[in-house]
Amino acid sequence: MRPEDIILKPIITEKSSSDMQEGKYTFKVAKNATKIQIKNAVESLFEVKVISVNTMIVKGKVKRVRAKEGKTPDWKKAIVTIDTNVGDIKYLAKGGKEVKVSKKYKDSIDEFMGA
């Protein structure tokens, strides 16, 4: 599956907007997508580093139009936590030499709120 087929649309609610401060973004995803596929899709589409993915199935609601009763379809929701600390990583290499590696990822998803 292509990343565009996995991530269907962002979900913007009061709760998801407040979670954005912590680096958590909510998406409606394809029902057959796995956590690994969702992680790879978000990383390739938005150029961010994904730390974790939590998924859940949202059950459809019973709706009524005049005398007929029906049900909206079930759908899958994913809450993706991204790495918001984009500082340089330092570690000791061979011979005790300190090496600094800069991260090439963004610290937020700018396209999420239409910016």
Word description of this protein:
With 115 residues, this protein is α+β, with helices and mostly antiparallel strands. It has a single domain, classed as 2-Layer Sandwich (Alpha-Beta Plaits), CATH 3.30.70.330. It is 19% helix and 37% strand. The chain contains three helices and eight strands. It has a four-stranded antiparallel sheet with strand order 1-2-6-3. The longest helix has 12 residues. It is elongated. The mean pLDDT is 88.
The percentage of residues in β strands lies in 35-45%
Assigned CATH superfamily: RRM (RNA recognition motif) domain
**Class per helix and strand makeup:** alpha+beta
* Strand/helix succession: HEHEHEEEEEE
Strand order of the largest sheet: 1-2-6-3
Question: What's the end-to-end separation, in Å?
Answer: 27 Å
Whole-angstrom Rg = 19 Å
The CATH architecture category equals 2-Layer Sandwich
Secondary structure: helix percent: 10-25%
Number of domains: 1
At the third CATH level, what is the topology name? Alpha-Beta Plaits
Task: Tally the beta strands.
Answer: 8
Overall outline = elongated
